[in-house]
Structures are given as C-alpha cells and as structure tokens.
C-alpha cells in the first residue's frame, strides 16, 4: 500500500474547502417578483450596480497611475492615468447620464 502524503491531502482539502466557501458566499438569493416589469427593473439595477463597481475599480486604478506618475515624473503615465480616471467616472455615472439623455427609459 502507498503512503498518502499528508501535505497533498491537506492542500486538496483546503482547495475544496475554499471553493465551497466561495460558492456559499457568492450565492445571491433570487427573489422573483410576480410582475415581469419589476423583475426586469431588478435585473437592470443589478447590471448597473456591476457596471458601477467596474467604474469605481477603473477610477481607482487611474488614481493610482496618476499618483505613480507624479512619483516617477512620467508625463505619458500621467495622461493615461487621467484618461483612466475620467473613463471610470463616466462609467460610474453611466445610469445617471443615460437617464438624462433618455428620461424614463432607465428608471
């Protein structure tokens, strides 16, 4: 009989435990509404929330690039950081901008 290496077993167990924990934490209950319009609005809110989170991450990355450019005195990185920051802010306020352009369409 082969002796099982306890390190391998521990690594496999921890990998499976972490995967199960991630699945358990990431599960979001879906509360379906009886009204289809309300369900579509909820889905739209979730999608815009994800888009807003991506915009915040992009803005943060742009801010980090701007800070690093001041440290290294790199003007090309500075302009890229400002563009990334501006793009992230536009993404963060995408729902508000779309509501201003087409009132009633995204409410």
Short description:
With 107 residues, the protein is an all-alpha fold. The chain has helices at 6-26, 36-72, 75-92, 94-101.
Question: Any overview of this molecule?
Answer:
By secondary structure, the protein is mostly helical. It has a domain at 32-101. It contains four helices and no strands. Helix 2 (36-72) runs antiparallel to helix 3 (75-92). The longest helix has 37 residues, at 36-72. 4% of the residues are buried. The model has no long low-confidence stretch (mean pLDDT 82).
What are the SSEs and their pairings?
Elements: H1 6-26, H2 36-72, H3 75-92, H4 94-101
Helix pairs in contact: 2-3
Q: How would you describe this structure in keywords?
A:
107 residues; mainly alpha; 4 helices; 0% strand
Q: Treating each run of at least 4 consecutive H or I residues as one helix, how many helices?
A: 4
Low-confidence stretches: none
**Molecular shape:** flat
Average pLDDT confidence is: 82
The total beta strand count reads 0
Beginning-to-end CA distance, first to last residue = 67 Å
Class by SSE composition: mainly alpha
How is the main sheet built? none
What is the H-and-E element order?
Answer: HHHH
Rg from Cα? 23 Å
**Helical percentage:** over 70%
Percentage beta strand: under 5%
């Amino acid at each position: 009989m082969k002796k099982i290496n306890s390190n391998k077993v521990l690594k496999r167990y921890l990998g499976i435990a972490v995967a199960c924990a991630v699945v358990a934490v990431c599960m979001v209950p879906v509360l379906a509404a009886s009204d289809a319009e309300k369900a579509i609005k909820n889905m739209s809110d979730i999608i815009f929330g994800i888009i807003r989170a991506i915009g915040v991450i992009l803005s943060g990355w742009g801010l980090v690039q701007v800070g690093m450019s001041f440290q290294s005195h790199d003007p090309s990185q500075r302009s890229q950081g400002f563009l990334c920051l501006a793009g992230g802010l536009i993404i963060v306020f995408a729902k508000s901008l779309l509501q201003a352009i087409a009132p009633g369409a995204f409410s």
